[in-house]
Amino acid sequence: MSEQDNAVPSYFVGPAVWGSGLKEPCILLQHQLQLLPCRAKGRYPQQNKGTYIPILVGNVLKPGQWGAKIIHRENNSIRLSIMSSTTCIIGKFRFYVAVMTPFGILRTRRNSATDTYILFNPWCQLDAVYLDDEKEREEYVLNDVGIVFHGNVEDVKSRSWSYGQFEENVLDACLFLMDKAELELSGRGNPIKICRVASAVINSRDDNGVIAGSWNNTYDYGVAPSAWTGSVDILLEYYSSKQPVRYGQCWVFAGVFNTFLRCLGIPARLITNYSSAHDNNANLRMDFFLDDEGKVDTRLTKDSVWNYHCWNEAWMTRPDLPVGFGGWQVVDGTPQETSDGMYRCGPASVQAIKHGHVCFQFDAPFVYAEVNSDIFYTRMEKNGTQVVENIDTTHIGQLIVTKAVGGDGMVDITEQYKFREGSDEERLALETAVMYGVKKQSIQDTTYQPQTDVDMDFQVQKAVLGNDFKVTITFRNKSRNSYTATTYFSGNIVFYTGVTKTEFKKHSFSAKLEPSSSSSFDIVIKSSEYMSDLLEQASFHFFVTARINETGKILAVQKAIMLEIPTLRIKTKGELVAGKETSVIVEFTNPLKQTLENVMLRLEGPGVLRTIKKQFGRIPMNSTLTWEVKFTPMRPGLQKLIASLNSDALRHVYGELNIQIRKP
């Protein structure tokens, strides 16, 4: 938080102008709270709590310590340079000038124009959030547009998200969240505490926080999660209404959380984990129970595997942990499980997760399970005995990614969370997790004996929403024996969280597996089979089990896929000059064999235009919608326009355009 060597000026503001006849001048800072009844005690600032800060004027400024020095004199005015403390609480301060006189202290009147915001400073080496790479500081603090990666591990998709941390009133909205979370004033200089309480207040599950989540495809009296294009509208609506904003899913929680962190000066990035485990009973494994036919028994199976899950990482020191566990910390505002009685998660050290040190706070076991669980396929005998039929050690956490520094590309950071599956290091991390009391059952702990001489896999043909496609199941018999496999195929329409809405396709067949050969079998999926029940992300979950009749062993493979969803086309018309009106045109062609009803378009661009919405009643099939918007860009440089389309039958339709705004 210290101002130091050309630090970014927006992180400490508030010049003081001095009158004549000053003697032993000092500055008084008084913390200003949002007036909540529970904060009434904040009206009486105290020096020992950091809410009353007298700053004496001296000759030398000491790094990381409060102080002031005269740097310019002219007539009856002087200019001061002020150094703030690295342990100062962050927030909005009232700024006063006091003068010692023989008659007592004379102090300036209250003036809101000199109110000063003090934030974390990742440019300062003494700050708890110091980041030593300038390009990373520009990305993780100053960049107000990010990328959300979604889809599935075999078909990674991306969309832009406007963080908007520098937009008007967003800082006040973010500071309000600490009041809403009732974080004590003395803790507001500690990024660990701030992240901990913020991960709870970002969601509304138990504290009436910012965003109400919905995962049931019903969004009455609110906005569908897929329609949001950024954080600003959500934060400002919550700041104004003090009521949860409807609705969000994981990428919305993560996008708003990222805005909060960057706005306060904490370096932050949005993470996507593909095939993310939701461990329902904290045993560090996914339990899928099979019925007599080898199909998943949804009554007994409580764990789930999300196609993807988004969370955040925040950069900070961890003086509460052993040396080496600072740096990136996982924080997650999506309400999944409770932690210390509230729906929150983190901060958990990424390094601790990788090495299996799950004993260190906060919530490391849950995050470890998200990225490194095994899937156990277990059959229930009639006498209640559980027989492990298959174990998949590689499905969970297959790919963990974030946005590239300085570009829109994707960076694979999987190895920051876990060692290569099956390596000596990965086994050591597992043993460490077991040592710390988190039991991840290994193959040796069961009677499981796999079928090693036959492999099974399947591939799904890429297809556009509304078209037919095929699934190809392939067996590879590596032995000299002939086998027959009774095979069950199940196609399910699922929420991206892995929860099934409906099973739309069932197919069984007997496969003859010749020695030392491969065999392939095609299953055709017709659009008429899935369109009526399709959910907003066009997400499917296919599950294939095969029983080798000669040995009784079961092979099991599951995959999530998403169909290709059409995009919005964005183009500009006219010159792009700061301060000069121009136009942007958004186009969309309906590819479905049905009319789209209740169509809503959103368009925004940080530094270019605030969110604009327009309702269109309907778009007939194969028809094209065109929307022209006039706007006046105010900020020169490379900017981005982001648009979304939302309707009853089609969601997750996005478009974006990079534009270069010239100086006038």
From TrEMBL:
<dbReference type="Pfam" id="PF00927">
    <property type="entry name" value="Transglut_C"/>
</dbReference>
<dbReference type="Pfam" id="PF01841">
    <property type="entry name" value="Transglut_core"/>
</dbReference>
<protein>
    <recommendedName>
        <fullName>protein-glutamine gamma-glutamyltransferase</fullName>
        <ecNumber>2.3.2.13</ecNumber>
    </recommendedName>
</protein>
<dbReference type="InterPro" id="IPR014756">
    <property type="entry name" value="Ig_E-set"/>
</dbReference>
<dbReference type="InterPro" id="IPR023608">
    <property type="entry name" value="Transglutaminase_animal"/>
</dbReference>
<feature type="domain" description="Transglutaminase-like">
    <location>
        <begin position="242"/>
        <end position="335"/>
    </location>
</feature>
<feature type="active site">
    <location>
        <position position="332"/>
    </location>
</feature>
<feature type="active site">
    <location>
        <position position="309"/>
    </location>
</feature>
<feature type="binding site">
    <location>
        <position position="372"/>
    </location>
    <ligand>
        <name>Ca(2+)</name>
    </ligand>
</feature>
<dbReference type="InterPro" id="IPR013783">
    <property type="entry name" value="Ig-like_fold"/>
</dbReference>
<dbReference type="InterPro" id="IPR036985">
    <property type="entry name" value="Transglutaminase-like_sf"/>
</dbReference>
<feature type="binding site">
    <location>
        <position position="374"/>
    </location>
    <ligand>
        <name>Ca(2+)</name>
    </ligand>
</feature>
<dbReference type="InterPro" id="IPR002931">
    <property type="entry name" value="Transglutaminase-like"/>
</dbReference>
<dbReference type="InterPro" id="IPR038765">
    <property type="entry name" value="Papain-like_cys_pep_sf"/>
</dbReference>
<dbReference type="GO" id="GO:0046872">
    <property type="term" value="F:metal ion binding"/>
</dbReference>
<dbReference type="GO" id="GO:0003810">
    <property type="term" value="F:protein-glutamine gamma-glutamyltransferase activity"/>
</dbReference>
<feature type="binding site">
    <location>
        <position position="426"/>
    </location>
    <ligand>
        <name>Ca(2+)</name>
    </ligand>
</feature>
<dbReference type="InterPro" id="IPR013808">
    <property type="entry name" value="Transglutaminase_AS"/>
</dbReference>
<feature type="active site">
    <location>
        <position position="250"/>
    </location>
</feature>
<keyword id="KW-0012">Acyltransferase</keyword>
<dbReference type="Pfam" id="PF00868">
    <property type="entry name" value="Transglut_N"/>
</dbReference>
<feature type="binding site">
    <location>
        <position position="421"/>
    </location>
    <ligand>
        <name>Ca(2+)</name>
    </ligand>
</feature>
<dbReference type="InterPro" id="IPR036238">
    <property type="entry name" value="Transglutaminase_C_sf"/>
</dbReference>
<dbReference type="InterPro" id="IPR050779">
    <property type="entry name" value="Transglutaminase"/>
</dbReference>
<dbReference type="InterPro" id="IPR008958">
    <property type="entry name" value="Transglutaminase_C"/>
</dbReference>
<comment type="similarity">
    <text>Belongs to the transglutaminase superfamily. Transglutaminase family.</text>
</comment>
<dbReference type="GO" id="GO:0072378">
    <property type="term" value="P:blood coagulation, fibrin clot formation"/>
</dbReference>
<keyword id="KW-0479">Metal-binding</keyword>
<keyword id="KW-0106">Calcium</keyword>
<keyword id="KW-0808">Transferase</keyword>
<dbReference type="InterPro" id="IPR001102">
    <property type="entry name" value="Transglutaminase_N"/>
</dbReference>
